[in-house]
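Is this the right way to post structure tokens for a design question? Let me know if I should format differently. Anyway, here goes:
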């Protein structure tokens, strides 16, 4: 796998969530995603940056383009050093929230993207990686 475009954005304020949406919209558009997929990717990025802000206060979003033998795509990684997620399976359930939220951010992001993986250690932090492939 080789990469041609990448970048990162610190997430530490509401403004950074807006910025992340813009960065992801531009990256996905340049890669050739259509308007529907761009909207899906931006929505997922919005939820995941908001989770960083809400639960970890701050963190970083990294993005990179992906190229494999016959396909290209976009990978977004959301990394924080916050409290971590004690039960990832539970957190992935629609409607589960520890903050009176809708509990649709993580399951929504999984549905909107092609791949979603979560690594989290309580007391250390969380990394959520999502990928979308060009059709
Ligand atoms: N980066 C994170 N750090 C710690 N906990 C998180 C993080 N992201 C999600 N969570 C946990 O997973 C739950 C579900 O997240 P989500 O599906 O986005 O719903 P909501 O944000 O509406 O609660 C959150 O309520 C929170 O407990
Ligand atoms: Mg959320």
């Amino acid at each position: 796998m080789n990469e041609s475009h990448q970048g990162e954005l610190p997430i530490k304020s509401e403004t950074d969530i807006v910025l992340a949406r813009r960065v992801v919209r531009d990256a996905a558009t340049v890669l050739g995603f259509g308007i529907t997929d761009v909207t899906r990717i931006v929505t997922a990025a919005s939820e995941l940056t908001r989770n960083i802000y809400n639960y970890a206060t701050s963190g970083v979003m990294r993005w990179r383009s992906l190229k494999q033998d016959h396909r290209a795509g976009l990978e977004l990684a959301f990394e924080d050093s916050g409290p971590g997620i004690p039960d990832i399976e539970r957190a992935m359930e629609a409607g589960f929230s520890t903050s009176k939220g809708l509990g649709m951010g993580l399951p929504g992001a999984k549905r909107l993207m092609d791949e979603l993986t979560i690594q989290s250690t309580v007391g250390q932090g969380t990394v959520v990686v999502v990928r979308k492939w060009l059709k």
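Format looks fine. Someone answered above. Worth noting: The longest helix spans residues 35-56. The longest strand covers residues 59-68.
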